[in-house]
Amino acid sequence: MAIVLSLSLTAVASAKSLTAELRVVGKGNKVVTEQSVKTGAKVSFKASPKATCFGAKDSGSGKSVSVKPNTAMGLLARAAQSTGALRPLLVTDAFSFGLGICGIGSNVASGGKSWYLKVNHKGSPVSADTTKVSADDEVLFALASFPYPNELAIEAPESATAGVPFTVRVVSYDEKGKRKPVAGATVTGAAGPTAADGTTTVSLSAPGRLSATHGKEIPASAAVCIAGACPS
User: How open is the CA angle 19-118-156, to the nearest 5 degrees?
Assistant: First the structure.
């Protein structure tokens, strides 16, 4: 897609800032970004005429739109200011219920895939610009086919000792946030797939970011520090 959303994301009003966690998973279940984002003032950008994933008649107007900072859309737009992989944003303002997202960076909804939004592992029933975000919330945007797959998560210690095995657990969350252990998940650096209770053993020689995959479920990752050093 051409760069149709230049993201002149301009602060237009003051607001109480907060920090939340943003994770974007794009095509092929590839993680686009995983970062802490601090909100601030409202951000504005242009709705894209090339945001056509809902149909050509429902593409963006090309007009500037503003979103509240402490929303899922506000968090994404704020992150896009400094993270090139999130640009351009292809967003349509054709709907009365809120903004529709067609593309985040090179990841564009097509072929039955659309953007799935979850906050703290629960699916959001409203648009991203009306989904409120609080401090320390975990916000996920994932490009997936409906019915949307479960979201994986890794339960791992924040720090470990080099060469000493430790236990991690892989769980999955459904649309309503119901949690269950995952058997047969693959975890980087693990001795083998997860058992029936979702656990496996991992040993690291250096700080690292673990990743977990299981079929078509949305993958997970977790950072583990060693001797006070943490992965970037």
Answer: 70
SS3 letters across 143-205: EEECCCCCEEEEECCCEECCCCCEEEEEEEECCCCCEEECCCCEECCECCCCCCCCEEEECCC
Helix (H, G, I), strand (E, B) or coil at 28: helix
Which amino acid, residue 192?
A: G
**Residues whose CB falls within 8 Å of the CB of residue 95, separated by 6 or more in sequence, listed in order:** 54, 58, 127
Query: Is the dihedral angle over the CA atoms 170, 137, 96, 143 positive or is it negative?
Result: negative
Tokens of 213: 């995959």
Q: Which pLDDT tens digit goes with each residue over 149-194?
A: 999 999 999 999 999 999 999 999 999 999 999 999 999 999 999 9
Closest CA to 61 of 87, 95, 92, 101: 92
Q: Which amino acid, one-letter code, is at 198?
A: G
